[in-house]
Write a structure and sequence with these properties.
The structure is a single chain. The chain is α/β, with parallel strands linked by helices. The chain folds into two domains: 151 residues, Response regulator (Rossmann fold, 3-Layer(aba) Sandwich), CATH 3.40.50; 139 residues, no CATH class. It contains eleven helices and eleven strands. It has a five-stranded parallel beta sheet with strand order 2-1-3-4-5, with helices on both faces. The protein has a four-stranded mixed beta sheet with strand order 8-7-6-11. The radius of gyration is 22 Å and the shape is elongated. The N terminus is likely disordered.
């Protein structure tokens, strides 16, 4: 691993690539836009670099050898992506990750399952091999993603490091009591999105779970009363498009674990929820959730008044 020790006023790009030719091409691209390339060739080096260097963005090959002298392991790059995203989960107000991750692959582009998995893990964009004839295209892609992240200037990366973890925030989700064409709607990023009853009920259950358990809680499909974990994000995507809201590919509203359990994606910020309005919803489960939330709020208010009187 080659890592500069001096301070820099340039973006630092961590390039995880064991093929010398491709690594040189990526170094050329990154250098051409004034950024500082840092190349690692094994997974061990990559994980160490993420701890020691604090890069501004990462370019990840999906097949790296675990350590020096070993053969590359298929899809070992998943570990690098997961580690980086766990360390840098923050999104900006528009819902874009402020630490971009690019995946370099000659196999995944066109494979919808692989692409969906990578975006679910939090990557920003794909870079398809070969890249020898696409230097300008790749450079433009990097700059576009940095602009979306709000990190065109290196000072923004410095500010990101200085900010308390989680302060950056993500896409705002609210339930304000909006009805459009007789369908209940929720607000996502300030846009009202009407959805069918079952999807809205699922969303309310997940909002209630977030309030009760924080970002760590997951709900079983049976508790959400859905048959497939994939149907929920698919229906939401359709509803957003119909409402005129196009979510970037790297913005996830829901997250599913290996057991098929679901939660709101940790990057989603929960805003105002109109429980009084939800208490009048047609679904009995939504009514019960709303009534429980209102009752809890009433108890807490009463306890607060009692405490004030005691003082």
């Amino acid at each position: 691993m080659t890592a500069p020790q001096k301070k820099t006023t340039r973006h630092k790009a961590l390039i995880a690539e064991d093929d010398p030719t491709i690594a040189d091409q990526l170094v050329s691209v990154v250098s051409s836009i004034g950024h500082e390339p840092i190349v690692v060739t094994t997974l061990d080096e990559e994980l160490a670099a993420l701890e020691e260097i604090d890069p501004c963005y990462m370019i990840q090959d999906m097949q790296l050898p675990p350590s020096a002298g070993m053969k590359e392991t298929p899809m070992s790059g998943r570990t690098g992506v997961r580690t980086a995203r766990d360390k840098y989960p923050e999104r900006n107000a528009a819902g874009h990750h402020v630490f971009p991750i690019f995946v370099v692959t000659s196999h995944g582009v066109g494979n919808s399952d692989f692409m969906s998995e990578m975006f679910e893990m939090g990557i920003s964009r794909f870079i398809s091999k070969p890249i020898e004839e696409k230097h300008e295209e790749v450079a433009k892609k990097i700059l576009e993603v940095l602009e979306r992240a709000g990190c065109v200037d290196h000072a923004a990366c410095i500010a990101r490091r200085a900010a308390p973890r989680g302060e950056t925030g993500g896409l705002l989700l609210e339930i304000l009591g909006t009805t459009i064409k007789k369908q209940a709607a929720f607000e996502l990023g300030g846009v009202a999105v009407p959805v069918r009853k079952q999807l809205f009920v699922t969303l309310v259950r997940l909002v209630d779970l977030r309030i009760a358990s924080g970002i760590e809680g997951y709900a079983k499909r049976a508790d959400l009363k859905i048959t497939s974990a994939t149907e929920v994000p698919s229906r939401l995507q359709t509803a957003c498009l119909e409402a005129g809201l196009t979510l970037p590919a790297d913005v996830m509203v829901f997250q599913t674990d290996r057991d098929g359990r679901m939660r709101l994606h940790p990057s989603i910020r929960l805003g105002e929820v109109n429980w009084q309005w939800l208490r009048g919803h047609a679904d009995v489960d939504v009514q019960k959730i709303a009534e429980a939330r209102l009752a809890r709020a009433a108890r807490e208010a009463a306890q607060g008044r009692s405490g004030t009187s005691a003082r």
